[in-house]
Amino acid sequence: MDNRLKRDDLTEDEWVRLAPLLPAHPRRGHRWADHRATINGVFFRNRADCSWRAVPEIYGRWKTVYNRHRRWSTDGTWETILQALLSDETVPEPDRTAGGRRTRQDIRPGMMFEVAHW
Q: What is the CA angle 56-61-54, rounded to 5?
């Protein structure tokens, strides 16, 4: 497995906050592929600005990553997750001391839950 691909994946703390917000596995049919790997695949695709078919196999089949992203986009799951994370009181509000612009402290590696990333 290529560790260069994994450096921007969800951290354990981010996953703990995100996991309860995800839909449960369906009662009928086969179980879904791992949510964490699939979400990391969606994030990879957005970061790399590549086609769905270019998503590496470590995130699962590209079609699975695409279908999950598409399904959650149409049923409002991504919006629900975003609203829950934005309303969470434990999310620190950025300090905008430089006239409303981002300060150096606002730009942190691994900060996956900013509005710009959705």
A: 35
| Tokens describing residue 100 | 């409303």
Q: Which two tokens stand for residue 9?
A: 């994946």
pLDDT digits (tens, 9 = 90+) for 12-29: 888 898 888 888 876 666
Cβ(46)–Cβ(80) below 8 Å: no
Give the Å distances, CA to CA, from 40 to 26, 29, 58, 89.
Answer: 21, 24, 9, 24
Residues 57, 36 contacting (CB under 8 angstroms): no
On whether the pTM is more than 0.85, the answer is no
CB-based contacts of 94, cutoff 8 Å, min separation 6? 102, 103, 105, 106
Helix runs in the chain, H state only: 3-6, 12-18, 35-48, 62-75, 77-87
Q: Which of 66, 33, 74 is nearest to 50 (CA)?
A: 66
